[in-house]
Specification:
single chain; 10-stranded mixed β-sheet; 10 strands; 19% helix; 45% strand
Amino acid sequence: MAEYKFDGKELRNRSGTKIGVLDGKYIRDGHGSKVGEINDKYFRDSHGNKVAEFNGKEIRNPNGAKIGTIDDVKKSIDGIGGDSLVAMWLFFVH
C-alpha cells in the first residue's frame, strides 16, 4: 500500500492530511504557498529554477542524472496523472 494518495488535485498522506495541491500548473503546499510549477516537461521551484524534467518514463535532475521513474512514483503515491503525479512526488515525497 502506498504512503500517499493523489486524486488529481490534492495529495494526502495515509492519515488524510493534505500535503500538496495542484492549482493549474502550480504546485502548492497544504497551506497554499507556491512550492513549484509544471512547465511543459520541466519542473521548476518557486523561484523559477529548473529542478527536474520528465520524459514520460524517467525523471532527471537538471544535470541529466536519473533520479527516478514513473514506477518509483507509483510505488509511493496511489493516484492518477503523469506530470502532475510526478510533480507531487518530486516536491513532497522524494
